[in-house]
Amino acid sequence: SLNCVEWSLLPPATQEMVAQAEQLKGRFQGDPSFEYEHAEISAEDAEGLIEDGKEPVIKEEARLVATIELIDRAVGIVPRGAFVKTPLGSVHENRNFEGLSLMEAKKLSSYFHFTEPVNLKNKTLLEKADLDPSIDFLDSLEHDTPRGSWTVQLEKGGTVVVLRSLLWLGLTFYHVPMTKQYGYVYFGTGEKNLDLPFML
């Protein structure tokens, strides 16, 4: 939105947009039509784009779309059991999900990345034996690298569990134990915290 009254949808992110946006550093300008030029893209990436016959330019709107995609992939999370996988492979919202218990809600292992699993495929058969294939089909936060990239806190006298990402500062996930209420919001600069490994 340009006036906070009229809103329009952003276009879907493409792989090219994501690749270009990952090369950009610094904060957003606040103007969707602002164009980042090759000077703001690293020299070897700019060279590769020039060889392809394209001028290495990306608009701020495309950078915003790509950054949202990157944040969703890295830190978009759901509680364990909120979604189920059918034997045919389709994923649906679990209508029987009534929330995590307070004990479970305080554990990182009770939250999953809501993206295609990567680490799950690398587990041994022995590790997979304890998993329920209908609800444990996503990657758990407990194995995120670097370790310590999430904080778990209790708010409102222990009635709300809040997870915060230290990798994407400004990402806050909440869950009210024993209810279906959960979600996440991002209020940040759109910059990944690349210093995190040195801070831990």
From TrEMBL:
<protein>
    <recommendedName>
        <fullName>Radial spoke head protein 9 homolog</fullName>
    </recommendedName>
</protein>
<dbReference type="GO" id="GO:0035082">
    <property type="term" value="P:axoneme assembly"/>
</dbReference>
<keyword id="KW-0969">Cilium</keyword>
<keyword id="KW-0206">Cytoskeleton</keyword>
<dbReference type="InterPro" id="IPR055316">
    <property type="entry name" value="RSP9"/>
</dbReference>
<keyword id="KW-0970">Cilium biogenesis/degradation</keyword>
<dbReference type="GO" id="GO:0005930">
    <property type="term" value="C:axoneme"/>
</dbReference>
<keyword id="KW-0963">Cytoplasm</keyword>
<dbReference type="GO" id="GO:0044458">
    <property type="term" value="P:motile cilium assembly"/>
</dbReference>
<dbReference type="GO" id="GO:0060294">
    <property type="term" value="P:cilium movement involved in cell motility"/>
</dbReference>
<comment type="similarity">
    <text>Belongs to the flagellar radial spoke RSP9 family.</text>
</comment>
<dbReference type="GO" id="GO:0060091">
    <property type="term" value="C:kinocilium"/>
</dbReference>
<keyword id="KW-0966">Cell projection</keyword>
<keyword id="KW-0282">Flagellum</keyword>
